[in-house]
Structure formats: C-alpha cells, structure tokens
Amino acid sequence: MHIAIAGGGLGGLTLARILRRHDIEAALYERDASRVARSQGGLLDLHPESGQRALAEAGLTGEFRAEARPEGEEHRIVDPSGSILVHHRPDPGSFDGRPEIDRGVLRDLLLDALPDDAVTWGHRIAAAAPRPGGGFWLAFSDGTGADCDVLVGADGARSAVRPLLTDAPLATVAVLAELTIGDADHRHPELAALVGPGNLWCVGASRILAAQRQRDGSLRVGVTLPPGSRQPRSYGSKRALLEQFDGWSPGLTALIEEADGPPVVRRIEALPTGTRWPHRPGLTLIGDAAHLMPPVGEGANQAMLDAAELATALAADGVHGIRAYEEAMFARIHPVAEMSARVQAMMLAPTAATDIVRFFTPAT
C-alpha cells in the first residue's frame, strides 16, 4: 500500500508521523521549497480533545509542553472606546486548557519527528487523476509526476485533490488584513501592555481589530471586515483600514498606525457546512481540504485530529479503513463547522460586541 500525502501542513505532517509509529511509510509532497521558505503564521491554541490528542498519538506531548505558552490563553475583549468587556485569565503554567503555540514551532516539532527525507519539498500538485488499473497519478507543477495506491489530500483551501471527490464551491465569508509590530515591548510598550501575553479583540459593529503576542515579542495585528462589495486590494493601505475605524479610541487604532509596513490582505473562504462526498476507494481528504471553515480556532485542531483518526483507521484496516474514517469525520465535523460559521457571522454582525460578550460569558 503506497500512500501519498498531498500537503505538508500540520495535518499532513501529523498523518505521516502517526503512520510511521504504526510502521507505515507515506510519501509526503509539499509545495514549499524548504521548511523555512515562508512564515507559517501566528499562534494557535491546541485543544485537549483534538490537537493535543493528536500530538499524544504522535508521541510528542512532552515536546509540545516544552514549547507551548499557557499564558498565551489570556484573552481580552474590548469595545471601540477601549473599555474591557471580557478578560479571561488562565491558570499560570496550567496545560489543562488550550495553551498557545507558534505554528512554525509546532510544524518544526512534527518535522523533527520524521526522517530527513520524509518530505519531498518544492512539489506542488497541479493535478491528480485516477490510473486505469487503480490508484492515482500526481502531476506536479514542475512537470514531474508520481503515482500511488492511496491518495490523501491535505493540501488546504485550494486543494488539487478535492475535485476528485466533490465540486463543493468556496464562499468568501470575510476579508482579513494582517500587519506586524516588531519588538513591541521596547518600541511600543503601551501597545504591548494593551495586548498582554495573549490575544486582544477590539469589537465594534461589523468589524474586528485583533492583536496577538508572538513568541518573538512582536504583535500580529488582524483586521476582519465583511466581504461586502469592495475588492480586498482596496484595503491595502493603513489609511484605508483606519477609515473603517473612524471614532474608535486612538489607543486601539494605533495598532494599525504603528505597524511596520502595509497590510497583507486576503479573502477568508469556507466550504458549505455539511460538505461530504461519496466514498471512493483509495482516496480521501483531511483538514481544510475536507472542511474549510472560518478561522475561529478549530481549523488546525480538526486537521490534526483528522490525521490521527485516519492513521488509526489505515493501520487497523488498510485501505478499507478510509470509509469508516470518513463517516466518523463527517459526523464530528458537522457541528464544529456549524459553530464556526455562527461565530464568524456573530463577529461581523452589527450587534457583535453584545453577542460576543454573551458567547464568552458563562450563564449563571
């Protein structure tokens, strides 16, 4: 059983690692030229029932705890005036919740747990097709190719493998503009104090200004806006973003003004909630390729759990285990995707501040 994994993100790497713990090798193809070819993004919180469970099955709990930041769970939500609406403080040093870890560090943990030749770098899959005698043929963007008996699409939002299983369309659910403030403690101590050790959400009517403390002491700033009729590129300057926060406290909008460069703007897309496909022997998807959701904290966690459950199914029942994995994954993901869609809509609603406070405040 020759397994190919398309995509070397967190899901694909977790799958390769756990398969190897079952003495099953897989060829993993990644479009990045190397492990340091680009930034892997900001921090993410790993949930005990999903991301942390997958790392336990990968045998990497100790390594995770050595690198994670439980204090990064601290979360402040403020209104446009800067008044605190919610302030969550985690137990110091506790790993009982959802400790934060840098995406790049987490990716390195998984890469370091694999042989040096486990990932074939610089191989973006341009197309995938079934072979006449069974299995699949992969065509890479450099003109080369490879074949396999089992193909797992872990290649993200714009998956080249997904069309073999479903033509479900992507829908734009938001526009995200990202900025960075480097060395915040020394250069902008007032902003470092505002954000704290974890996350800050500044919530107004149909818009979010958020910031997150990074491992290197920088602040990662994100502006989330409704998709509307404007093209994302129209938000490509600080001035254009600041226009969206007219009347907000200058102490908050300084997160945009003091950023080190212009914003990087992109669409946030999602697959329809409830997306599924008829089983096809030897072929399946994990992570964003299978169930792209709004980025509200579940994507990486569910991708890693997908990987753990698929690896277990393949180890137990070979290629026949894929069907059981898919049925369990569809059932698990449906409520998670529904919740993610609700939270995304709530964050960009005219009543976002009231709704989010209600969401994060336990009923008494």
Keywords, please?
single chain, 364 residues, alpha/beta, FAD/NAD(P)-binding domain, D-Amino Acid Oxidase, Chain A, domain 2, 7-stranded mixed β-sheet, 5-stranded parallel β-sheet, globular, FAD binding, FAD, flavoprotein
Topology (SSEs and partners):
Layout: E1 3-6, H1 10-21, E2 26-29, E3 43-45, H2 51-57, H3 61-67, E4 75-78, E5 84-88, E6 100-102, H4 103-112, E7 119-120, E8 125-130, E9 136-140, E10 145-148, E11 150-153, E12 171-181, H5 184-187, H6 189-195, E13 199-204, E14 207-213, E15 219-225, H7 238-242, H8 250-257, E16 264-270, E17 283-285, H9 288-291, H10 299-317, H11 321-347, H12 352-360
Parallel strand pairs: 1-2, 1-11, 2-7, 4-13, 11-17
Antiparallel strand pairs: 3-6, 4-5, 8-9, 9-10, 12-15, 12-16, 13-14, 14-15
Helix pairs in contact: 1-4, 1-10, 2-10, 10-11
